[in-house]
Amino acid sequence: ACQAVLEQSSKAMLIFSKVLVSISQQKFLFWLRCKKIDEAEENDLVDTHQALKEALSQFDQDHNMKFLREFQELFDQDGNILLPSGTERATMRCILAGYKAMFMFVDTARKTDKFLDIAVPMVTKRNRIRLWFPTSVRGLGKWILRRERPQGQGIPEDPEIEIPMPSHESRDPDVIPGNSVAAKFGRGLNKFFTFLSSPASIVGIRTVLGTILLAIPGVYEDSAYFMYVNKSLWAIIMLQFALTAFIGDHVFTFVFRTLGTIIGAIIGTIIWYIGSGNGDGNPYGLAAVCAVFFPIFSFFRVHSPPQFILLSLMSTVTASLIIGYSWINRHVPQIGFDGVGWEVAWRRLVLVLIGLTGASLLMLFPKPKTGREVVRRTFAKTIRNLGEIHLTLIGSGVTGNRSLVGKKFIEKVFGIAATLNNTSRQIEMAKFEPPLGGRWPVEDYRRLHQIQIEILRLLAEMATSLISMMDVSHMKFLRYSIMEPNFIADISVVWASLSSSLEAKHGLPQIFPGPLSERVWIHLNNSRQKWNSFVQISNHPDTEPSKIREEPAMYEFSNESDEEVQDEKLLSKSESVKLEHRVINMLESTGVVTSSASAPAANVETVNLDKLKLKDLQSEIFLPTASYIMSHLQLLYKIDELTQQAKELVGESFHLE
User: Fold this and answer.
1) I need a labelling partner for 607 at 20 to 30 A (CA). Which of 149, 174, 265, 462 fits?
2) Greatest CA separation found in the chain?
């Protein structure tokens, strides 16, 4: 059904990437030629972009008719579902899976089209290679002096990610906010001491202190000559590089810097004696040997895995220093030591060990900070922020407020993704910390990390579906089914409990509002019963209109009745309820999401919700609606997995026995 859209979308991005490669290959030296971009590639890009627009337009015209033609045998001539003999519901797993995949594919193609709407005019307009300068010196200065740090860079601290919630923030229960001079001075002083106790400040203080201690012998008359001759600066530099924020990072650095220095010392010594023998250094012999070894160094430096970059870097630098200092000691007048080869190698190794040992001693004061604690507290905050994003999406769906899922919301989602990506490295570094209190459950934290990534993906799918629903219809969504107010309260309690339990290291309550994947069906049945009762009262001939107006706010869209709705895109109350319940019923009848609750099914025949017709599947709103509800129900299963994993880490509390 969407094959043409996928083909044109992938083809357009492939051609655009080729254009970018063509542009990047013309560096500064080729700029003097003012060479234009290949017109054939430019024309292909324009034609493919136009073909993508036509494919999307054709898909919008056909809607999902091509997709449904493959399942015509499931419906009769009137569009009703043909139920197998002896069954009350038809399993439509293939239709649902296809609907969600088709929606995601087409939505990606639409985003590609919007991207090319901006990129293609730039390529066609600026078809010559130019050397660009800043258009505003003030803007350049603001960019250089910016205070915001890109996500995932620098020393990892406990990330505080702000999510654009509609209102209320948490307050400090120990402080009454004030705007007096004393209050402002106290807040500034508190921020200063908080900064001094941060990991970045502690690393800086340790670095300054260690540098001073190792440099002191170099300023005394009795030891200055010894320090200068033996190149004590190497030890100071190594101490500065070996100091880290967390014990795990330092242990990793200590081990790999030591191994890299030993390997580099051996290789550098071999290179020197092969090229020079017992002489003072033969330039031709050293050049020949370096021509063999240096490409090997470069290969391992460029292609080594990230965890072995430090090892390849230290071995390469150490070998180069041994060769260089051996040559300098014999060809440049020196004060004192003039050794070569092995004499330089073992001194370099000793100085590296001195610097690493000094860094290890400084890491013990004032208190070693473990990366394990940072990983746990980071996960506590990312879980809390994921919960806030979840409730933001719920609020946007219930209130119809599209601004809640705007640009800032997307930026925060990417910020959490960057934090989780950076945390994967912290988990690997924490493995190197000494198990003083016991073995660290690294596999549990890896699983917790993976579940959060999957939850973030489902939240992104929900946001995409929600935006598409708002483009098609202005209805306020999901007040009558899985977003029943009591169920929203259960979701809020689960997110808050998971975050606080990891933050404070206390167990989750034994009696806990979950699993959410089961409670959703209980709340759904309660919501159906309430709606049917309301419909029966509304349809009763003795019911006064004022009585209907007293319906609970949970069921209200606005102050207008169905007949008073003037916006053509705003679905009426009954239409929205029917659509939601039809989607839920179809999902409930599949193997994709299965009701495991033991609550009996409610009687929904009052509003004729169980009878899904072919015309419902053909409606434009059905595609994003099914994707939204399906992603949300899958999200509930992932939250249950997260809860179970958190219980394995922190245990249970508040036992009844």
Assistant:
1) 462
2) 114
